[in-house]
């Protein structure tokens, strides 16, 4: 009998802290041994990774799959197409959202999302809760939610159907503190957005490009500072999601300097798109890139790169939330709809890892170890999945990416595995793509083909990130 099911030989192994050469022995879906010179005859299968970086499979901790929208639009990806697309881009764990409708119990919300995921997910998944109604009965449900493995709560400061008042945010933060959970905050000032939107519309400025003006970085900065202040009041760590602007980054940097436990996330759209992608004229074309917060200017792009490299950002996620460019999605209200009626969100699960590897690591903006931390290790730690996920170590799941950095690729919608009918990165050149993605030691992507199957992914119950010491 073979000792290993698979050996990945001659790998350039990269973790968040190390880079070294070795062979990775895999058995029963787990990494069982890492050593130099494992005997190929001890394995049923061998992959020679000579000259190739091998990183942990990505953990994409921000994506929206099969999430019903409050405006009737329909997201392009369900759990099959979304997780298939993730696997083909090197992501082996996703943490989408289970969104509570106002008036719904959290228990009912998670039951609904389990039905959406079961038998469909091609890679492993956990859930964050979106809390839209923080009444006392909902707060009282949180200990049971934690017990069941939902240890992160997303809170919105904007969007009429989702937002919480500062009072209710404090209630959730207080509960998170007692339970050792992490709250994820969408920080944009709702009144600023509504006031600016009204003013722009009165001036007849309704094209997609005005979305970027309505969602001003000043509103993002104010809400970021307010979220930090609320967390300071309660004395609890928070994570600021999808941070887009230099102004917001400066608030986070300041708070860290004060010793506060502020974690933060950014996304590919804030590195590779600008407000100009929403249009430089009044055509509707730019609706494809409407997301919130919107892409900013090159100054903010530079600030995002710096904050990724210097540790201000904790994690790098996609905020994958694709809508087709038709009446189910971007054109829900027609081809000339005002920007505020266009569903927010873009596709990003499949391109997240290749874009950051290509433009970050291969262009020397980030070390390979920092890449691993941002895309896999830090999200696994923050959301209570480490060390099962997010690293290359004996005992960890054999979720790995073997990288091809020798074959240039031009990103096109046709080559991707999402159901979305477009990508914001159409025509962009990248120099890196997974040659092979392993999930539990089995190739789900290789030879430019998806080899996974619906239902292969398993639900992961998350541990609390901040357990009490006592
Ligand atoms: N903004 C969000 O907050 N969520 C989904 C997509 C988006 O653009
Ligand atoms: Zn958000
Ligand atoms: Zn989101």
TrEMBL record:
Every Amidohydrolase-related domain range: 53-441
PTM characteristics: Carbamylation allows a single lysine to coordinate two divalent metal cations.
GO CC list: cytoplasm
Domain of life (superkingdom): Bacteria
Modified residues (N6-carboxylysine): 154
SUPFAM superfamilies: Composite domain of metallo-dependent hydrolases, Metallo-dependent hydrolases
One MF term in the entry's GO annotations: hydrolase activity, acting on carbon-nitrogen (but not peptide) bonds
Keyword set includes Thylakoid: no
Gene3D superfamilies: Metal-dependent hydrolases (3.20.20.140), Urease, subunit C, domain 1 (2.30.40.10)
Keywords noted in UniProt: Hydrolase, Metal-binding, Phosphoprotein
Cofactor section: Zn(2+)
NCBIfam families xrefs: D-hydantoinase, PRK13404.1
Annotated family: Belongs to the metallo-dependent hydrolases superfamily. Hydantoinase/dihydropyrimidinase family.
Function: Catalyzes the stereospecific hydrolysis of the cyclic amide bond of D-hydantoin derivatives.
PANTHER family assigned to the protein according to its UniProt record, in alphabetical order: COLLAPSIN RESPONSE MEDIATOR PROTEIN, HYDRANTOINASE/DIHYDROPYRIMIDINASE FAMILY MEMBER
Name of the protein this chain belongs to: D-hydantoinase
């Amino acid at each position: 009998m073979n000792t290993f099911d698979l050996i990945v030989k001659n790998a350039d192994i990269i973790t968040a802290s190390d880079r070294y050469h070795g062979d990775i022995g895999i058995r029963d879906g787990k990494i069982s041994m890492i050593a130099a010179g494992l005997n190929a005859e001890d394995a049923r299968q061998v992959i020679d990774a000579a000259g190739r970086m091998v990183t942990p499979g990505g953990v994409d901790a921000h994506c929206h799959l099969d999430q019903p929208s409050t405006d009737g639009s329909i997201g392009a990806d369900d759990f099959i197409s979304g997780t298939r697309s993730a696997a083909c881009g090197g992501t082996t764990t996703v943490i989408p959202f289970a969104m509570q409708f106002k008036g719904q119990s959290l228990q009912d919300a998670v039951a609904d999302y389990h039905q959406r995921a079961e038998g469909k997910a091609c890679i492993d998944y956990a859930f964050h809760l979106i809390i839209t109604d923080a009444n006392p009965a909902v707060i009282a449900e949180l200990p049971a939610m934690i017990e069941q493995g939902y240890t992160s709560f997303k809170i919105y400061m904007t969007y009429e159907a989702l937002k919480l008042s500062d009072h209710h945010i404090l209630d959730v933060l207080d509960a998170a503190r007692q339970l050792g959970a992490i709250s994820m905050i969408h920080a944009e000032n709702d009144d600023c957005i509504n006031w600016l939107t009204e003013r722009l519309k009165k001036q007849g400025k309704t094209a997609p490009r005005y979305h970027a003006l309505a969602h001003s970085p000043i509103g993002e900065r104010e809400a970021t500072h307010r979220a930090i202040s609320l967390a300071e009041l309660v004395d609890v760590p928070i994570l600021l999601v999808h941070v887009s602007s230099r102004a917001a980054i400066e608030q986070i940097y300041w708070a860290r300097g004060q010793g506060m436990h502020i974690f933060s996330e950014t996304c590919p759209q804030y590195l590779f798109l600008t407000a100009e992608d929403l249009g430089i004229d009044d055509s509707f074309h730019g609706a494809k890139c409407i997301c919130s917060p919107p892409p900013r200017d090159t100054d903010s792009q530079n600030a995002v790169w710096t904050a990724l490299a210097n540790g201000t950002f904790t994690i790098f996620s996609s905020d994958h939330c694709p809508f087709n460019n038709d009446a189910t999605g971007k054109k829900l209200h027609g081809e000339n709809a005002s920007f505020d009626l266009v569903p927010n969100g873009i596709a990003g699960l499949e391109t997240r890892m290749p874009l950051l590897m290509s433009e970050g690591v291969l262009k020397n903006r980030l070390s390979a170890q920092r890449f691993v931390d941002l895309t896999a290790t830090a999200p696994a730690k923050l959301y209570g999945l480490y060390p099962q996920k997010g690293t290359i170590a004996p005992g960890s799941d054999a979720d790995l990416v073997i990288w091809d950095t020798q074959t240039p690729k031009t990103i096109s919608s046709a080559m991707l595995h999402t159901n979305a009918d477009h990508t914001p990165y159409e025509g962009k050149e990248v120099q890196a793509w997974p040659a092979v993605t392993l999930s539990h030691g089995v190739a789900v992507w290789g030879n430019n083909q998806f080899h996974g199957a619906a239902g292969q992914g398993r639900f992961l119950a998350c541990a609390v990130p901040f357990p009490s010491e006592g």
